[in-house]
Amino acid sequence: MPSAEHAWTVLFFITEPGIGEVLPELAGCTTGLCSVRDEAAAFAGAGAKVLGVSAHAPGYLAEFAAARKLGYPLVGDEDLELGRTMGVPVVRRLFARAGVVLDREGRVRALVHPVPEPERHAALVLERLSELVDAGQRAG
Fold first, then answer.
1. What is the distance of C-alpha 39 from the center of its chain?
2. Selection from 106, 112, 104 nearest residue 87 by Cα
3. Is the four-CA dihedral 18, 93, 75, 42 of positive or negative sign?
4. Whether the predicted model's global pTM rises above the 0.90 cut
5. Half-sphere exposure of residue 88, counting CA atoms within 13 Å on the CB side?
6. Widest pairwise Cα distance in the chain
């Protein structure tokens, strides 16, 4: 999953894209994903590739991403294996809202959880990514 062209890969784990449109009490995934879209320049500036991850079928996710013009792919992890391997909490066969930062070698460098405010999903992960970038520059 890491990219040779990027120093970092950032995975945004979400419960279910668009669920708030059906069940308002679970709202937040669309807001969180759009916050990532809106911060695309900041992620690119940090050398990060961005992916969204949900416990759903890839076909549904591609349609959702295209309809909202996210600008980055959503990938399905129907068996929850990828997220569990990275330490992302699971609630009722869905992922809790979280962010995972991988380095170029695919090592988990940060798990950002909890994310209580969906509109701050991107900002919280960018803060952690910035710390990692700064630490790498000091070490280099």
1. 12
2. 112
3. positive
4. no
5. 28
6. 48
